[in-house]
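Feature request, filed as a ticket because there's no other form

It would be nice if the structure record came with a short human-readable summary line next to the tokens. Right now we just get the raw output. Example of a typical job, pasted below so the devs can see what we mean:
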Amino acid sequence: MSVAEELSKERSGLPEAFLLQYIAWEAFKVRILIAGMAQSGLTVKEAKAVLRDEQVWNQTNYRKIFKKYFGSYPSNSKGVGKYFNAGEKVETLRHAFVHGSSRVAPDSYRKASSRLTEIFEADWGKLLADLLKNEKRIDPMRRINRSKL
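Raw output as currently delivered:
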């Protein structure tokens, strides 16, 4: 095992490492919405304005906007639902860490980090294209352009 792999394995159980991954997941969820909104013809600037106005940081509002542009709630969506469900499961761990409401074993952070890694490694380009019934890949990790209607 390389030194980098050992360090990665060592640190994967740290709450700080988990928290950084969780922050990335929150940002990625917003990019997923922007990608879907761009496919409906909005510019990225217009999409961001909608997200700001709708206060997408609130999970209820996020789900509502997701349903509007993708046709179903994130946790029930074909292909992507399992990833959103996994993200929701780690949210309780984030809450416990941030608010100090309970003690959490390092193994819990390691498992949550593993779940988040699975989310990031999914083929989102294909998953979102399938969800929106689009032949072209819609990769939220890359530059997002408006789709011409």
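Something like this underneath would help us a lot:
The chain has seven helices and no strands.
Residues 1-5 have pLDDT under 50 and may be disordered.
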